[in-house]
Structure formats: C-alpha cells, structure tokens
Write a structure and sequence with these properties.
297 residues; alpha/beta; Pyruvate Kinase, Chain: A, domain 1; 2 domains; 5 helices; 5 strands; 62% helix; 13% strand
C-alpha cells in the first residue's frame, strides 16, 4: 500500500512540474500574440498604399501590362509555398497547413502540372523530407518573428524563378489570422498577380491627374515585385500570429488537463492514504486483541 502511495505522489509532482511549464509557455505565447498582431496591423497601411499607387497607375495609363500579371498559355510547373512553424506544441496548426498544401499539390497535379515546393519552417521541411518529396528552396528560423529582409529575400527568389520560367504559377499555403480565436489554413495564388488586385475601380471618387517620371513601365517594374514581396511578408506575419495563437490555445488545454489530472491523482492519493491508515488501525486493534487474549489465557 505504501509503495502505491509513493507512486501516486511521484506522478502528482511530475504533473505539477509539467503544468508549470505549459502555463509559462501559455503566458509567453499570449504576450507574443499581441506583438505579432501589432506587426500585422502595422504592415497593412504600406500594402494599401502600394496597391493604391498601382491602381492610380492603371487608371492613368488605361491598362496594366507586365510579365508578373500575365497568365502563360501552356504552364508546366506550379510553385507551392508552404508556411509552417519551426517549433511544435502548437496543436493542429502545422497539420492544418500541410493538409491545405497537400490539397493544392493534388489540384496542381490534376491539371497536369508539376508541383515545385518552397518550404518555410522546420516542421514543413521535416514533413516533406520524411516523405521523400524534393524541395527547391527551404527556409527556417524565421517563423515566430519574421524579419522583412528575409521576406524580401524569399520574395525575390520566387520572382526570379517565375521570370526564369522555373515555375509558371505560384500558390501559397499558410494560416490566415482572423483573431486570437479564429485561425484558418488557406491557399492563395501569388503569381501571376490577378489584374483585379491592382486595378481598383474607385467608383464615385475624384482622382488626381499624374505625370509619371520615369515611364509607367519602369514604375511597374519596381512596384509589382515589391507587391509580391509584401504579400509574402504579410503571409509570414499572419502565420506568426496564428502560430502563437495556436500555441497558446494548445498550452492552455494542456494546463487545464494537468489540473484535472492532479485532482484525480490527489483523490487517488487520499484514498490510498485512507486505506493505509485503516489497515494500520486494524493491525493495532488486532494486536491488542491478541495480547488481551494471551493475558486472559
């Protein structure tokens, strides 16, 4: 009986230690969500103004023509950019993104195109490496706090591969951060850029007239690649915020489960202790009765 009580108490101490770790990780993730959300909000004005500049350009010139906007007549390869985390303990965060990525890959193959993988995050890299699926490029160590410089490097790499016809289309699988409680794994086409993304109508709005210096084509050569980089950066920021939200949710569930398990183990320890005390009392009473019987005899 004493051995059983020691085992239960040891388990209680182990679960209490685990609870402290999960609680600390929950608090850390909570603080990081706020910062990640602020970075998402801070990046939006730039993207809005960049889009507005391209809309104004399209409005003044009458049309927007650029290689990054043109659908190729006979595409053969489609790039798939998969954004996962570098660390685990984030619930179903990575599994949901990878499920969407697999769906995109199947859809690409069903159209007779060859998928070309670009992977961000150790979890995605490990997933595809384990399955023997080749990756053209991979990046890691930036999932939680993605710097703009890395987003620009990734974006320029993707644009170069598109320009060199290494890929004819580009899709991104990542997690869209709606709120700390609403996360949605999604897929979007990044290249070629849909013309409607950069040619807003602006009905009922009086627009200023512009004189362009340099020529509109040269401006587009700068703005459109920057627009792609901005989309990559936005996806990285959304994924970072989603990762921390998913980790907080998973760690809170783990902490709650630890508390429930501690209650169950405490009841078991109390029951074992009561059984032990009852056994000791019965042994004492039995010994006293035996001594009394010997004395009377």
């Amino acid at each position: 009986m004493g051995a059983q009580l020691r085992i239960v108490r040891r388990r209680i101490r182990t679960v209490q230690s685990t609870k402290k770790i999960t609680r600390a990780m929950e608090l850390i993730a909570s603080s990081r969500i706020v910062k990640a959300q602020q970075r998402v909000e801070a990046s939006r004005p730039y993207a809005i103004q960049l889009t507005k500049a391209m809309e104004d350009l399209a409005r003044q010139t009458g049309a927007v023509q650029h290689p990054l906007l043109e659908d190729r007549e006979e595409p053969t390869k489609a790039g798939v950019l998969v954004l996962t985390s570098d660390r685990g303990l984030a619930g179903a965060y990575n599994a949901n993104v990878l499920k969407v990525a697999e769906s995109v890959i199947r859809e690409v193959r069903s159209r007779g195109l060859e998928p070309v993988l670009y992977t961000i995050g150790k979890k995605g890299i490990g997933y595809f490496r384990f399955r023997g699926i080749p990756m053209r490029e991979r990046w890691q160590g930036i999932s939680e706090v993605p710097p703009y410089e890395e987003a620009e490097r990734i974006g320029r790499t993707l644009i170069k591969d598109f320009a060199d016809e290494e890929i004819d289309e580009l899709y991104a699988a990542y997690t869209d951060f709606r709120s700390a409680f609403t996360l949605r794994a999604t897929a979007q086409r990044f290249l070629p850029i849909a013309p409607e993304e950069v040619t807003g109508k602006g009905l009922g709005v009086v627009h200023a007239e512009y004189l362009f210096e340099p020529e509109p084509d040269e401006i587009l050569d700068h703005l459109l690649p920057q627009y792609v980089v901005t989309k990559v950066y936005a996806a990285l920021l959304e994924s970072a915020a989603s990762e921390n939200a998913a980790r907080r949710r998973a760690m809170k569930a783990a902490t709650d489960n630890a508390e429930d398990l501690i209650k169950i183990l405490t009841r078991q320890a109390n029951r074992a202790r009561q059984d032990e005390i009852t056994t000791e009392i019965m042994e004492i009473v039995g010994g006293a009765e035996s001594m009394a019987a010997v004395s009377e005899g």
